[in-house]
Specification:
The chain is an alpha/beta fold and 589 residues long. The chain contains 16 helices and 20 strands. The strands form three sheets. It has a ten-stranded mixed β-sheet, covered by helices on one side. The protein has an eight-stranded parallel β-sheet with strand order 3-4-5-6-7-8-9-10. It has a two-stranded antiparallel ribbon with strand order 15-20. The protein is globular.
Amino acid sequence: MRHKRRIVLGGVAALLIIAAALAGILWNGEDKRPMKTLRETSTETSSATSTETRSQAPENSVSVQVNLAELDQTIENKFSDLSQWELGMDWLSSAFAQSEDYMRTKYPFVKRVQLMSATGGSEVRDLFLSPLDREQLTDYNFSRLGTAVKHILRQGLKPSIVTGNVPLKYSSDPHIGGFGVNVRPPDDYEVYYDYIKALAQYLADRFGLDEVRSWTWRALVEYENVDWFNAGDPESTKEAYFKLYDYTVAALEEVIGAEHLYIGAHSMTNAEGYWDERDFIDHIAFGTNYYTGQTGTQLDFLTYSYYDMKPGLRSPSPFTLESNLNLLRERALKNGLTDLEYGVDEGRIASGPDNKELFPRSVASSYQSAYDAKLFKQMHDIDLDYFANWYLNTERLWEGITGVDPVGTHLANLAYRMEGGRRAKVHASAPVSLASNEVDGIGAYHDNSGTAQLLLYNFNEDPEAGIGEPVTVTFDRVEAVQGNAVTIKQWMIDDGHANYWPTWRIHLEEHGISEGDFGSWSNHSWTIGSVANERIRKLWYDNVNEYRKLAKLEPTETTAEIKDNKLVLTQALAPQGVVFYEISGIRPS
């Protein structure tokens, strides 16, 4: 086991989402601490860019070299998943009102929706006609889940159905844990098997077996988290989960077919668990299957949770993003499980700068776009397949006329443009103006279209410490596909581009709104309708058109000549700033 240091990060995000879902607005007026004075935006460094070709870089600029002749891995869509705490929040009546092309038009990077605890654990989640009637164990009613799936498919997405928790009436002594669901195992695993099998058959009958075979399945949320599953002691809980997983897989295999089933498990891992999550990987490879009596059980992927503490304070060792991944992957490889997918099913940042819980788990300041750009690069570096998002805009998912996209959503949309390209070698060299700044990026080249891309960021771990960085980007040993000119599109995200947050903070201060006015939530939370009191919501909606205008992500377009087989771009990269270049009509020389 790793260090016995308990960090309440993993599933705590979901606990807070429960509160928002049930209460709608959670706040109290007791804490009236004044909000910190806003840091004035620095004007020392302009965010303007120049596409003028130069023979020499400006003095003291960071040099970024992009080599289209050295291409490596294929760039992937790393922000493909949405975590949905309770399907009724966003995928029933509210989804019905949306146009069919809403997601693919607004958020094309979203491909899959994870329906957490979709099959039970509370009276709302349990899929029965009479969820509390213990005399009727087979009065299944899967229509609520079916309706959510219908709306997901209508948007051109795929569902990931997270089975569990165990329905209330399947446990003789159900216990509601910290996340509002029954944490006990079933009394009779055969009864539970029949329930999951009947669900799979219902979905196959309604949507077609071929369609269901294209979905993802997962058994429980954070399986070694005592607040999600607890049979009374660590050893009993571990064995109960093994059995629950084996029976779940068997039930799904009977309907879907083992060769067509795609199923995995999600551990907490970002904190010390109730039991060692690696024991599950051992059970998968070498344990006796509780249903079949044979050795081993099907497993296609492993995922975990990852939360940094707050902006500027990372999750401490040994619970870093990479070490969490390695903990699972190394055990799987040791056990001969060589073809698994690995992802993060929930995470990002737990608390705001005010040390209160964020809803959702990210901020809307420029820090988040630079953070996510760095994350996108790191995920390709360490071969992490995806990192799920909680929400997309200030209305959670369906923006209507009042939703505003935060910088993290912008970043995901830009990163998605790189999908399918070959990764180009990028080398950033000193000097940086501030030693704690990190100027780096990830490049891509699409040889079928002659398009080069560069996602460049100026990140500082301290959200208040960064300064602007002059940057010179050189694409070396390149030529234009036709003539000498190429077309350059450029998108920028910083305090002055595609970002409503600085103006919103100014408005809060001007109206005397303090940290305490947000009650239990951080005042850096950005789903305003879910976390704010009436006074704050009125301020928001009175000015929402201004915020939408400020948050609009639009490219500029220029042309530039390639000289001496070099394309040189100069950029003043703002603090916590991101720039995305897309260059058409270019190729290696």
